[in-house]
Every structure is written in structure tokens, then in C-alpha cells.
Amino acid sequence: MATEAPVSATGAQIPKPAPRDYYWARSFLAGGVAGCCAKSTIAPLDRVKILLQAQNPHYKHLGVVATIRAIPKKEGYLGLYKGNGAMMVRIFPYGAIQFMAFDNYKKLLSKRLGISGHIHRLMAGSLAGMTAVICTYPLDVIRARLAFQVKGEHRYTGIANAFLTIYQKEGGVSGFYRGLTPTIIGMAPYAGFSFFTFGTLKTLGLAHAPELMGRPSSDNPDVLVLKTHVNLLCGGTAGAIAQTISYPLDVARRRMQLGVVLPDSEKCLTLTRTLKYVYSQYGVKKGLYRGLSLNYIRCVPSQAVAFTTYEFMKQVLHLN
User: Fold this and answer.
1) Cα–Cα distance between 311 and 193 in angstroms, integer?
2) How many Å is the maximal CA-CA distance in the chain?
3) Which residues lie closer than 8 Å to 229 by C-beta, 6 or more apart?
4) What span, in angstroms and rounded, lies between the C-alpha atoms of 205 and 185?
5) What single DSSP character describes residue 226?
6) DSSP conformation class of 285
7) Pairing of strands 214-216, 224-226
């Protein structure tokens, strides 16, 4: 028996409510999964970067490869993943907010403000990165503190204890926002150039070499997407360029985040003082850019995986 639409007392049909789209939730999930996959691939390198940036006394005399070898000997192989629990707690909402905000800022800039072309990618990426940082910054501080600890010299027993200790001993809520200024200043060019470079490479590739670089989207054959290996290459290139531009600010951010954990923390209270102190004490190569070679090794695959996973999740969740 055929079904009919409900009829009101006046005889007029009552329209069925439109099914909910949940686009924002699907976009949030896609970004969160992309962030977690990206960071999980480079978690050991991430910890080494923090140890080198902040001149940890147990490892400051070592290089990148020597530090990677030394950590398992001193702290066991799980030492390579110290602080990664806090990272996962942080990175899911961070990645989710960043990618979702990027899409929304891009639409806002083009439709409401009339800003289009390559510049709207740069602006949308910068705004998305800053939005994600502000929303998840306390978790980044916790993660940095836990990753900086060395076996036998633990100040914090876990995520909850770190939250409580910082809140009680470092000025309450403000203790969780040490280093926020250089983080935001550094994130603006990093996220901006990352999204800008990836978006520009993607557009150019699909426009000038669609058969070589592109393929139809699995959820919408009318939409052309990058092939997986091209996606990885574009994402890695975007990460390398963005990291080079913003790295000194990242060093300052880490030192300010670590706060009282460092013996010279009183000299790293503001962005300007921290940059001057690191430069005067260690110079450019061994100070402001210490650990950059490691950052290339970690940020290239990280950004490659992040953009590739997000593009894949967009197809799985029908966001194209």
C-alpha cells in the first residue's frame, strides 16, 4: 500500500522536515582523524624535538640521531612516546577545529568579504591555525611538560596531575597559557603558508595536469581529487615551507611553555626576551634553529599524512 504525506486539518499537505546534514560534525571528525594519524606517525621525533629545543641537560650534547638512540637506552622504547597520550587528547580537537575552521573561513572570506584567489587560502589558513591553537593550548602545554621529563626526574605523574600542579603552583588558569603569544604569532605564518601551499599546488596540479595528478573522487565522480602519492608530495612540501618560516617562534614557544621546568625560565618570560636570550646564548644554528633538521624529518611526513588523510576522510564522509 502506497504511503501518503500527512495532511493537515485544512487539507494541505504538511512537508516533511529536511533530513539533518551534520556537515559540521562530519568535517570535525575528518579533521580530528587526520590530526591523530599525522601526529601518531611522528610521535618519537616530536619528543626528540622538544628535548633538543629546550636544551634538556641529559640530551643537549647529542644530535638528532644520537638522541633517538639514547632515549630507549635511558628510558626504554616507550620513552619515545612520552607525552603522546596528552598529544592525542589535544590533537583530535586541534586537527578537527583547524580543518573545519579553514573550510568555514575560506567560505566566509570569499562569499561575505569578496576575497578570493590564492590570498584567501593564506588568510583562512592563518585564522584556522590561530583558532585551533587558542582552543587547545592548555593541552599543548601539558604535553610539552610531560615530554620534557626524563626517567627518574618526574615532576608530574600524568595528565591530571600536571593540570592540577600547574593550576596550583603557576598562577591558576594563566599558567596554562605561557607562550601563547609566540604560538599564535608563529601559527599564523605556519598554518597560513601550509594551507596556502597545499591548496595552490593542488589547484595548479589539477588544472594543468589533471590526468597525471588527479582522479575522480570516490564519493562524487564529478569532483577531481589528487592521487594519493601526489597528495603526500604536496602536503610534505607545504609542511617544509611553512616550518622554515616559523621555526624560531616555535623554539621560543617551547621554552616559554616549559616554564619553571627550565633553570633559566626567568629569562624566557616574554617572546622578545626569549628570542634575544636564545640568540645570545646559542646563536642562530644552535639556538633559534636547533632541531630544524629533525623538524624537516617530522613535519614533512606529518603534513603529508594530515592533508592526505583529510582528503580521504572527505570522500568517506561525503564532504566533497
Assistant:
1) 18
2) 84
3) none
4) 30
5) E
6) I
7) antiparallel
- Which of 52, 44, 78 is CA-nearest to residue 255? 52
Q: Please, what is the angle between helix 23-41 and helix 292-316, to 10°? A: 150
CB 90 within 8 A of CB 40: no
Q: Encode the chain (320 residues) as per-residue pLDDT tens digits.
A: 444 444 444 555 555 554 556 888 898 999 999 999 998 888 888 888 788 877 888 887 888 889 989 999 888 888 888 877 777 888 899 999 999 999 999 989 988 888 777 788 999 999 999 999 999 999 888 888 888 888 777 888 888 999 999 999 888 888 888 878 878 888 888 999 999 999 999 999 999 999 999 999 988 888 899 999 999 999 999 999 998 888 888 888 878 877 777 777 778 778 888 888 889 988 888 888 887 887 788 788 999 999 999 999 999 998 87
Sign of the four-CA dihedral 76, 78, 81, 87 = negative
Phi, psi of 216 (to 5 degrees): -65, 140
Q: CA angle, 259 as apex, 253 and 264 as ends, to 5°?
A: 100
Task: Give whole-number Cα distances, 227 to 223, 224, 305, in Å.
Answer: 13, 9, 13
Cβ atoms of residues 195 and 238 within 8 Å: yes
Return d(Cα 218, Cα 232) in angstroms, integer: 18
In this structure, the chain runs to a length of 320
Residue 309 grid cell: 588523510
Could you give the CA distance from residue 31 to residue 80 in angstroms, rounded to a whole number? 25
Give me the sign of the Cα torsion angle 248, 254, 259, 263. Answer: negative
How much is the pTM?
A: 0.74
